[in-house]
Amino acid sequence: MKSLFKVTLLATTMAVALHAPLTFAADTAAKPAATADSNAAFKNDDQKSAYALGASLGRYMENSLKEQEKLGIKLDQAQLIAGVQDAFADKSKLSDQEIEQTLQAFEARVKGAAQEKMEKDATENETKGKTYREAFAKEKGAKTSPTGLVYKIEKEGTGDAPKDSDTVVVNYKGTLTDGKEFDNSYTRGEPLSFRLDGVIPGWTEGLKNIKKGGKIKLVIPPDLAYGKTGVPGIPANSTLVFDVELLDIKPAPKADAKPDAKPEAPAEATKK
């Protein structure tokens, strides 16, 4: 019977083969394109495919080791490679039961370390964010609302301010308090359009302070953003800094608006 580790390894390898391009796009520098010499190293497509699977698995494991080191867990790379080799040779030093128990314990250890780090980071982010907001609030032209939102109007714009039910079109740049950028519509070359009450509270409140053509800087506390959970790219308890330009406001259709009445057919058309 195949060992549990062999089955797990095969499943992991196939998963990596399917998802590696997306998984490593943000963390691994682009590799040079294959050359004639590199292609010549393989006798056929099966060899090349096997090598590609191995390379993807290797990158996956390397990335995993780096992520675990961030949690204070340092695995022995030599033993990791030895485990793979022994599994293929059917010479595993651990029984299927020992492998399963060890991996379950390791998973619990990783989860515990991740939770501990998240709580530590959340506390640090809360402190740094508060310091940043207090400093920004002292800048000329900055205002603090009762909710804790801090903002500075750089250009008021003209017309009416947007309402909750309006759709707004904006260009923006978002950063953490350390200046790390997590989103930028200018870079994408495409403004964002959304209903004003469909985003984080800091935006819903903040954009009501300007009008079409206006510009505003928002410093948003965690409870008006993504709170204690955070989202990918934005750690827990992060204070967010946005530079926003309000390009357009599209009022919502009136709820009591009625469709245009259809003209009645001529009397002649109703006759049989």
From TrEMBL:
This protein's record includes keyword Signal: yes
Signal sequence annotation: 1-25
Assigned keywords, A-Z: Isomerase, Rotamase, Signal
GO MF term list: peptidyl-prolyl cis-trans isomerase activity
EC number: 5.2.1.8
A Pfam family annotated for this UniProt entry: FKBP_N
Catalyses which reaction(s): [protein]-peptidylproline (omega=180) = [protein]-peptidylproline (omega=0)
Domain named PPIase FKBP-type: residues: 165-250
Positions of the UniProt region annotated as Disordered: 252-272
InterPro entries cross-referenced by the UniProt entry: PPIase_dom_sf, PPIase_FKBP_dom, PPIase_FKBP_N, PPIase_FKBP_N_sf
Coiled-coil residues: none
Described function: PPIases accelerate the folding of proteins. It catalyzes the cis-trans isomerization of proline imidic peptide bonds in oligopeptides.
Protein name: Peptidyl-prolyl cis-trans isomerase
Organism, scientific name: Leclercia tamurae
